[in-house]
Structures are given as C-alpha cells and as structure tokens.
Amino acid sequence: MPMNKVILMGRLTRDPEVRSTQTGKSVARMSIAVDRRVSRNAAPGQQTADFINLVAWERLAEFAGNYLHKGSKILVEGRMQSRSYDGQDGVKRYVTEVVLDNIEFAESKSHDSSNSFGGGFGQTGAPQGAPAQSMGGPNSFGDDVSDDDIPF
Questions:
Q1: 147, pLDDT greater than 80
Q2: Spatial distance between the Cα atoms of 136 and 5, rounded to a whole number of angstroms
Q3: What is the pTM of this model?
Q4: Is 128 helix (H, G, I), strand (E, B) or coil?
C-alpha cells in the first residue's frame, strides 16, 4: 500500500503569503526551517537546517494567513508533491513542496512573543485556545505527540 505522509516541526522562515485562485480558493505559501542533526565532525558554520516549502489550501490557508508569522514554531502534517511549470522566460521549473493537511502550534503563547495563540487547525476544524491540540480529522496528531517523540 503506497503512502505519502510528511510530518515536520520547525519555524516559519517568512510570513505566509495568502492569495486567491481565479476560482476564489485561498492558497497560502510559506517555508519552514527544520533542524537537522549535525555530526560532531561537521565544519563550523555548516548548514544545520533544511528549508521546506509548504502549501495550504482554503480554510487552512486562511488560518495560516491570520495566525502564523515568521518565527512561529509549528508542527505540520501533509503529503510531498512535485510539479513543474514553465517560467515567464520559457524555462521549465521544478518544485517540490508539502501540501498541508494539518497545522499545530508547537509552543505556547508564553514562549512566543507574537500575537498568535496556542492550538491547532486542520482542514476540518477551527482554531482552539489550548496549546498543541489538533483540530485535524482522523489523521490529526492528537495529544499523543510529546517532545520525546520528535527526533530533534
């Protein structure tokens, strides 16, 4: 049985960019920095994070635009997607991104000096006030995830 599931935790590298398609659907594009374990033999200054492009649609996109900002620590769930398009210069471009199904705050408001609030938001739910709780459907993280479960 094929499976395409991605779970990441990291900080947003920029504010989400929310737009509407020609049919009126909201789409948010953002990027997350995910820490990478570094070997003891690594050279000083060596990159220790991966930068992953994220895409959210409809209600999840609106949530991202309203409540997330650069530096927000989030936990996301989605699927990896690769696509190509022709740029304005006629050159074919390739993009790999994670299409999100769920977003959760990974730290409480007391750890974050922003205007965000604790809680999660999935395709089927609405924001909640409790930190690190999911509003996703049956595939949501729930309360089962602790810091010990995350490999970094």
A1: no
A2: 14
A3: 0.69
A4: coil
- What length is written for the chain? 152
Residue 99 CB neighbour total at 10 angstroms: 15
Contact, 64 vs 30, CB < 8 A? yes
Mean pLDDT for 115-138 is 41
> What's the CA gap between 133 and 126, in Å, rounded?
11
Q: Which residue has the tokens 């970094």?
A: 152
Q: Report CA dihedral (87, 93, 96, 97) to the nearest 10 degrees.
A: -10
Q: Which of 29-43, 58-72, 96-110 has the lowest mean pLDDT?
A: 29-43
pLDDT digits over 63-76, tens only? 999 999 999 999 99
Asked, for residue 1, whether it belongs to a domain, the answer is no
Number of domains comprising the chain: 1
Look up the domain containing 67 and give its range: 6-37+46-149
Contacts 24+ apart (CB under 8 A), 38-44: none
Displacement of CA 7 from its chain's centroid (Å): 9
